[in-house]
Hints:
Strand content: under 5%
Helix content: over 70%
Amino acid sequence: MNPVTLNLVLILLIFWTIPWKVYGVWLAVKNNHKKWFAALLILNTAGILEIFYIFRIAKKSWAEVSAAFGQAWRSAWK
Length: 78
């Protein structure tokens, strides 16, 4: 894999992972799930563990997650 392609893949992976990680960690703190908080904060799984936590453990629907991401996106650009 050439360096330009590798850099592009890494940048895309970062932009994919950060929102999921932030939202997952925030939910773990809000729900007082200390073990999940530690796991989500320490392990880097490209968003897979975070998505599992959000939808299976915290039992959020796609509508709730989409609304939360939209609200965060709008408030970040004010």
